[in-house]
Amino acid sequence: MKVVVFGATGSVGCLTVAEMVSEGHEVTAFARHPERLDIQNPALTRVAGDAMDGAAVAGAIRGHDAVVVTLGAGKSRKGSIRSQGTMNVIRGMQTHGVKRLICQSTLGAHESWNNLNFFWKRIMFGAVLRPVFKDHELQENLVRASGLDWTIVRPSAFTDGPATDSFKEGFGRQERNLTLKIARADLAGFLTRQLTDLAYAQRAVGVSN
Asked: Which tens digit of pLDDT belongs to each residue from 117-134?
């Protein structure tokens, strides 16, 4: 499958690109500095661009079978890169007739709010990361209204280390027996699986240990 990944040099994006290439997909890595990807593979194409540039985004989407969004703002606690960048992706997909969209959001968004504990509800998303959280919720609203074949993936807080393949997925809003952590490598594998597994098509799915 030919896939373009937006946010390809982020902490999740780079692992996702590597996983997809290893699974035999042809991957286009779109980022401001795609040369930072330490991956050497003939199936990988690097495209330099800004997700806030609608024309550049649309041009990168042309000719692909699927789009994966792992956009983030690094250490910034403000900005609207997730929602505005995703809106550019949606418009580009609509222009070029690309239907499959896999978008990384966050656990806690919308109906998954009940999965969180006091710390995440009141301190992190309630105060420290409130603008980031609101941007994720707007991002999800845009994806749901896109008319595309979408899957929204909601991970909990990231940890480093190898994939464990032991995380929970697809749990309901009442699930509280969670550590609220997941390895980035596990998330990369899960995002990759969504390219060919449509079990969560038109759904938002939580993933967490």
From this structure: 999 899 988 888 899 999
